[in-house]
Amino acid sequence: MHVSNRLAAVYGHWLSFDFNSLMFADKFQASEEMARMDLGRMNNYKSVIRKVGNDLGVDPALIAGIISRESRAGNALDDGWGDHGNGWGLMQVDKRHHTIVGAWNSEEHLRQGTGILVNFIKTIQKKFPGWSKEQQLKGGIAAYNFGDRNVQTYERVDVGTTGGDYSNDVVARAQFYKKNDF
Q1: Of 11-20, 38-47, 49-58, which range is least confident?
Q2: What are 93's strand-pairing partners?
Q3: Which of the chain's termini has less CB crowding within 10 Å, N or C?
Q4: pLDDT band for position 6 (50/70/90)?
Q5: Would you say residue 132 lies in a domain?
Q6: Is position 16 within any domain?
Q7: What is the mean pLDDT of residues 131-156?
Q8: Domain of residue 37, CATH code
Q9: Measured between alpha carbons, how far is 60 from 53 in angstroms, rounded to an integer?
Q10: pLDDT by residue (tens digit) across 162-175?
Q11: Is 144 left (phi over 0), alpha (psi -120 to 50) or beta?
């Protein structure tokens, strides 16, 4: 089964998200523009993103969306570090909560970051079994940014995330990357 179909079976049809905030509609264009600006750099990692996504059952476009948001495809990093020296690599794995694995742009790093995302999605699925798969996925994406304990309701899933729009922004960027062959 193709990775996009496997993702939909486990996590829902994230490409057709109806963003949970009408106010985000204005930000959608900004998210897409940021993703577009990162595309050249992101293409340097396309093969490894695809490999990790296929191996772990996560759509590569979603991984690219997180990379764009977290590190601008590496452009926002200083020797691999971001977030005031706490975040490592393309996916900004937080050294305060995880043991850093691999070089900042390596397959090992992408496997670690994607594995962390998958664990957060599974945690949110258990925490909110009544949510749709799409809602659980967005909750998992928000948790990737600020922890699963902070996800309380779907209506306020991004309240407290960086910028107050983390999951919506990541999904908007991921939709752009999906249209660009990720």
Answers
A1: 11-20
A2: 88
A3: N
A4: low
A5: yes
A6: no
A7: 97
A8: 1.10.530.10
A9: 5
A10: 999 999 999 999 99
A11: alpha
Question: What average pLDDT does the chain have?
Answer: 92
Is 18 catalytic? The answer is: no
Q: Which of 83, 94, 107, 108 is catalytic?
A: 83
| Residue 38 a catalytic site member | no
Query: 130 is in which domain, residue-wise?
Result: 3-11+21-179
Separation between Cα atoms, residue 11 and residue 36, nearest integer Å:
25
The pTM assigned to this predicted structure is 0.91
Whole-angstrom distance, CA of residue 78 vs CA of residue 140: 27
Distance CA 27, CA 111 (A): 29
The DSSP line for 99-128 is ---S-TTSHHHHHHHHHHHHHHHHHHHHH-
Q: What is the pLDDT at residue 160?
A: 96
Answer whether residue 53 is part of any domain: yes
87-88, strands of its sheet edge to edge: 81-82, 87-88, 93-94
Residue 26 forms part of a structural domain: yes
Catalytic residue among 59, 70, 134, 165: 70
Token pair 């079994």 is found at: 129
- Contact (CB, 8 A) for 173 and 59: no
Count how many domains the chain has: 1
